[in-house]
Design a protein that fits this description.
By secondary structure, the protein is mainly α. It contains 3 helices and no strands. Helix 2 crosses helix 3.
């Protein structure tokens, strides 16, 4: 039986745990980079390395509203 992939961010963790991790700037930055690279979006991961602190606020808002981090680039 195949395991269904979760649509939630931060490694399929629950909404509350992902929200707590998104509130902390350093973990949001690191996990945002890792999440985008694990999705196969290498360019988006590299952009998050350099602009992660700016995207943090967007990630926080998107996490509260959608339960997913902000996706500026899909490449």
């Amino acid at each position: 039986m195949a395991k269904k992939k979760s649509n939630k961010d931060y490694f399929g963790l629950g909404y509350v745990v992902s929200l707590i991790l998104a509130i902390i700037p350093f973990t949001a930055w690191i996990f945002g980079v890792i999440t985008r690279i694990s999705e196969g979006k290498i360019i988006a991961g590299i952009v998050r390395i350099f602009l992660g602190w700016l995207v943090w606020i967007l990630d926080l808002v998107f996490m509260i509203v959608n339960g997913r981090i902000c996706r500026l680039l899909n490449v």
